[in-house]
Amino acid sequence: CLNFLKLCKVKYYNYCLIYNVQRDFIIQTGDPMGTGRGGESIFCQLYGDQARFFEAEKVPRIKHKKKGTVSMVNNGSDQHGSQFLITTGENLDYLDGVHTVFGEVTEGMDVLKTINETFVDKDFIPYQDIRINHTVILDDPFEDPPGLSVPDRSPEPTKEQLDSGRIGADEEIDDLKGRSADEIEEFQAEKEAKTRAILLEMVGDLPDAEIKPPENVLFVCKLNPVTT
Fold this sequence. Notes:
Blueprint: H1 2-9, E1 16-17, E2 20-22, E3 26-29, H2 42-47, E4 54-55, E5 69-72, E6 79-80, E7 84-87, E8 100-107, H3 109-116, E9 131-132, H4 159-162, H5 181-191, E10 219-221
């Protein structure tokens, strides 16, 4: 929990791609490289490469019972870095004891549903970019570790960050261009059962905690205070 909050605080997740969308199972993000092979814990920024990962915590064990469960991803060696997943299915008990649950989505389940239904390739990568544009912390019960450098403003994305080789998150798609009236009618009928990738802000910039969030905002809260 501390690791996730401090990574949010230093804007580590800004512009991260959602690079793994498996319908009715999980969505995965948290790797700035967008490959699922990168990322690092907040402790790496404090203590160097030897602290890129930290040991996965097993207690208390919270299970992946419901949609919207948020977990740090196991790197294969029972360690965590920055990658995390959000479940889009229920009773995923085979994830228990592997990935560490530290929170849950309490608002914005419609956003989660939209991501869950996006078009992906054979490797579960969305055809159109879906990104975390910004993160805002409404409550942080943990003291900042000594030496933590917090930016005074959100950094601008680099060209490399935005160049995924896919359809850009802010790129308009004209589904009707060049279609006949009959084709448009047929397409609209098909579209009722499908969805396309959209620009997402997982957590938007809110003036205060009481304001009603926009419809494209996802709240991660009920964090487990025992986990780091």
